[in-house]
Protein: Receptor kinase
Amino acid sequence: MKMSLPYFFFLCLFLLSFSDQALAVVCASTCGQVQEIRYPFRLQSDPPECGSPNYELICKNNRTLIQVGSAEGHYYLIRGISYENRTIEVVDPALIHGNCTLPSIPRSFKDFYSSPVYLDRLSFASFMNCTMPIQQKNYWHVPCLSHNGTFVYIYYGDPGYFGSVPYLKPSCGFLAITPFNTDTFINSSADIFRHLQEGFLLYWDDGKWSNLAFLHYCFKESIRQFLNETRSNKDVASMVYLLLKNEKHFVSCVYIRCTQLKYFYFALALLVIVWLLQLILAFFISGRLIFTPLSILFFIAQKFWSERISIDSIEKFLQNQGKTISPKRYAYTDIIALTGHFRKKLGQGGFGSVFKGKSISGQEVAIKMLGSSKFNGEEFINEVSTLGRIYHINVVQLLGYCSEGSKRALVYEYMPNGSLDRYIFSENGSPCQVFSWEKLTEIALGVARGIDYLHRGCDMQILHFDIKPHNILLDKSFIPKISDFGLAKLYPRDRSLVSVSAARGTIGYIAPELVSRSFGVISYKSDVYSFGMLLLEMAGGRRNAEPRVENASRVYYPSWIYEKLKEYKGVELSNTYKINVVERKLCIVGLWCIQMKSSDRPPMSRVVEMLEGDVDCLPFPPPPFFSTSENNWASEPLRVTTLTSLGMSEISEEADYPLLSE
Structure:
């Protein structure tokens, strides 16, 4: 007896598992051409235990009918049932003979949402009555239904979302809508009636599918349909249309099949996300295919245009001034010959590369090949216009130039001893005392005379704006020569002030008025300030602004010099030598030159006299703006920080320093 209970339990489970099939066999019915009506369907005349009330069919006049939706008295004729595929083949009774007539069920397709059977794909034929003719794709005129000045049209396609009829024209009224089970080509309204005669398929489920399963099913069906339709449509426009169409079908499928509204909202949100991703992808692809080439073309055009402007400005300058300048104009082939095909490179700078060459007469030359057209060829024009019309022993000589299209070159006399910074600074920043004080004075006087010549000795006043040790070159006899006129400006000699569009020069040598007009007007005194910084560096053998020094009081070098000069005892301005007469002279003259207000600085002619005179006759200069006499030492680092924070970059780059030497 104990063993019989488990057997009885498994027997009940076995019988229950076959209960549906047993009912289907016992309750099987027929009606007209439908030979087998079984679970889940039932006829009205079947016993209550047969089938499901939700799938009740009607047998009338030997025809099997099914009611879809809530409309009473309107039934579709069933032609067959496939239990394997869970489909019902139905047709509107009024359209079964293919006659020119309206559907007998003037329903909205929303009726299919409330029915246990549903459509798999929402393609409909909509009948509408219009007061005006319509000439538009997918609108087919039905002459047999049109009369008394009215026009009946059939529109076939997707109906839109949630019962809306987006294609309904203002002059038209809705008559009826019926499912349309075809994706084939339509040529006339007769084709539509022929397809309506064939009917369409309805689907049902066995109640075992969850809402998530329906989501998965709708997604799979949309993908399958898209792949099937794209086999015959390979062009991009058709594929985009089919993609959007099947995405819409996915949402419609979920809306019809899922019983809970939240799954529809989920599908709708998913579709919106997909559309956004597609939009981003479309922008990305269009950017790659359209905007990127356009950007490249714009960049090339802009570069070509700027080069064209640069070339035109240079050629215009050479045409107007070519006869007044003495340097020789070379062809680019001559430049190649002079440099031996650019065999020996001396250096690389911000404005181009420098090569060593030899002229036909055997003279050694340095040739600067200008790179990109910075400032629209301004550097080239500045060099040629200034050096091309002057000659001074303390100014580097321009021997020739070349301008052919974008190829530009400047030919200088060769300076075998390089630039001054090589002899006053060591590689580690410590003082490098190579010259005697007398030689340093000669070099300082030579530079001062060269600057004074630029300011007063020419028919035009020339302001260099970039005086520094790197731009002072030394010939074989160590005679200094001012070079690099790329930032120079020419002005009439009677002008006491000039205007520039931006700060020019190198940080540490830029006059204060170039940074802020509160320090005075821009004039030739700006070069005086740069020369004063040069003198202080020559005297002390160190750079005028070094933020990395250990003692914060020595960050601003001129202030430190000023304080040491005030101490009337022998102190060291460098780590090697005691202060002497020449060194003190250079420092005093330098401090006069770097006065913050430009009106307090002497002109270069007076600077030359001061360097030539006796140091004891020199008046002691006022304190620099950032000296300890008027300001706390803690404020001195602000000088360096302020200049740096202004965002000024070195316009004349240090890479240009080996310009005319090896």
Remarks:
- The two ends are 116 Å apart (CA to CA).
